[in-house]
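so the lab meeting is tmrw and i was supposed to have these ready like two days ago... anyway. pasting both below. for each one the top line is the aa sequence and the line under it is the structure tokens. i havent really looked at them closely yet so no promises
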Amino acid sequence: MTVHQQYMASVRTAIDTVDPTPYFVKYGENVWAAVRGLLDATTAAAAAPVIEKYTGVLAAADVFTASTTFWVMESIRLDLGYGSQVHP
């Protein structure tokens, strides 16, 4: 349970700390490209510590962690409204 709570906290920290500004500046009026860049960066930030810790310990941790982290992040964002300006 503690490892799960740490993982969820890592995802929340990434949501809170990845700055969206560079993505919206880079893509200008192409908002969806900016959102995609932000989601990719947030996923990478949340997955990196897990990948570092478990590569070589758990099979395919380096291969599947980022995609799993993305869906965990989406659940936190969309189901719980965490980090959103509009809450469910």
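ok protien two:
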Amino acid sequence: MTNRFYNAFDTEALEAKNISDYRSPFQIDRDRIIYSNSFRRLQSKTQVFLSGEYDFYRTRLTHSIEVAQIGRSICHFLRASGDPLGPDFFVDPELVEGVCLAHDLGHPPFGHSGERALHDLMRERGGFEGNAQTLRIATETIYQNESGSRGMKPTRAFLDGILKYKKLHSELSDPDNHFIYDEQAGYRDFVFASRKIPEAWARGTDLNRLKSIECQVMDWADDTAYSLNDIVDGVRAGFLTTEKIRQWSETAMLDAAGKQPIEDLLRAVREDRLESVFSRKIGEFIQAVRLIPAETFLSDLSNRHRFVLKVDPAIAAQAEVYKRLAFEVIFRSPQLQQIEYKGAFVLKRLFEALTENYLDTPRRPIAFLPVAVAALVERENDPSRRIRRLADYLAAMTDSAAIRTYKRLFDPDFGSITEIT
């Protein structure tokens, strides 16, 4: 049965695909993510705790898998809920799954501290942003070797789904995050069918609110996963105890509605039912959504821009309480702050070494980079494109690879000719 929710505009690819396949275009997009090096590297990238610290907590990979499952479940729930959806008119769960699996591909090692560190280093060179980097991987670098790099030729619907932010770096007065790179304007034009952005959307950061329904589902699935699962990991790792939770709640200025999620958490911890209670909450968050009609300057081209995902305000408030608790107690803990500082320091030193050898020196550089990566860097004649390739390399590193490379370069007692990056 044909799904009338999508049309040829949605399935058009960024570049022509010479594929005769039993799979749908969205299944192909999803499968290319799953079998990519970029996706596998997420298993050793920080979600909350440094990769390798514990054996039970989430990494970027397990987080992405959970987001994908939640995203698919939201699609199935919306379809089962009926009007305006139905058996032949529904949000494609495999498209949403691919978008969810891809949503963190561009995040560098050491979590958000690594992202901030790379942005500070690239601030005068076009910036660095995890979502923009995800777009760059999908469109330009997911496949690469010594002879060059290319993207996965994604469909317009997939590209729009991962395009969480749509403002260019140069369009923001003081961009710290939530932008795409200026050189990615062409991909935005493709998503927008080269339509001129209306002034009402172009001003300020309003354009970043323009999200396809698949992107909105991914966004809520991501919020659901980390607002609940970061709490579970924090308790299991000993960062959140009943005493710390209670102390926080007493000073957090919560209203009556805000105190209830904390009481639920304390009861679950005391009764040792944390996993079961929070698994049930995931189901509640999934079922707290509905579609309402919307209108944007793309609504006439695609059903993907004719609806807004409305989240029950009470459930959204719960998510905010848990996110705030995680940020103020876990992420601001001295242990994680020290690890974040170290991660940022490691990336800064590696960046300095790379730019010194591949950008600032007129002589042939020392062979710091893998052969294929060095060939890509040296092929770039434009300094801005060359430094972007260096940022690509650092962003693609796992936590352990970055630490190992740092030690090999700067620790006199570490290193072996038998080691590889």
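from a quick look at the 2nd one: The CA atoms of residues 99 and 162 lie 6 Å apart. Residues 213-334 form one domain. will dig more after coffe
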